[in-house]
Design brief:
Layout (H helix, E strand, L loop, with lengths): L4 E7 L3 H12 L8 E3 L4 E7 L4 E7 L6 H7 L4 E9 L2 H10 L11 E2 L5 E5 L9 E5 L4
Bound molecules: cobalt (II) ion.
Length: 138
């Protein structure tokens, strides 16, 4: 089931400040535009690395799920990792059959790459919030 590591999600109180960190300390040059995903309550900005991406996420709106994370981690921090899967519904069903909890309704919803995603509860994944996304182009 598990495919390519697509990105690492980093929550931040300021995408602008985080972009500066990746640019100034690590020399990142491929930085996308910041855009909003209102239905998920986040601003998003991708920083490209040679083999993956960093997904910077900042709260959007008062109901953003990122507020609680930032309350515990005021400077931001690693929020989730995202792996590609060839069939998102089959992956969800297989995880459920093995007793894992899919967050929310469990119905795949459009993620930041414009393809369906689901999130697996951290308690089933050794404390790591795991996002699974359909392979782009499928
Ligand atoms: Co993500």
């Amino acid at each position: 089931m598990i495919g390519r590591l697509n990105h690492v999600g980093i929550a931040t109180p300021s995408i602008e400040r985080s972009v500066a960190v990746y640019r100034d300390l690590l020399g990142a040059t491929a930085v996308g535009e910041r855009f909003a995903l209102p239905e998920q309550g986040v601003w998003v900005c991708f920083v490209d690395t040679p083999n993956s991406q960093i997904e910077l996420i900042e709260p959007y709106g008062d109901a953003s799920p990122i507020h609680a994370f930032l309350a515990r981690n005021p400077n931001g921090g690693q929020h989730h990792v995202c792996f590609e899967v060839s069939d998102i519904v089959a992956a969800r069903d297989a995880l459920r059959a093995k007793g894992a909890t899919i967050l929310g309704t469990g119905e795949p919803r459009l993620g930041a790459h414009g393809v369906p995603v689901i999130f697996v509860h951290p308690r089933d994944m050794g404390g790591v919030l795991v996002e699974l996304m359909a392979e782009p182009g499928h």
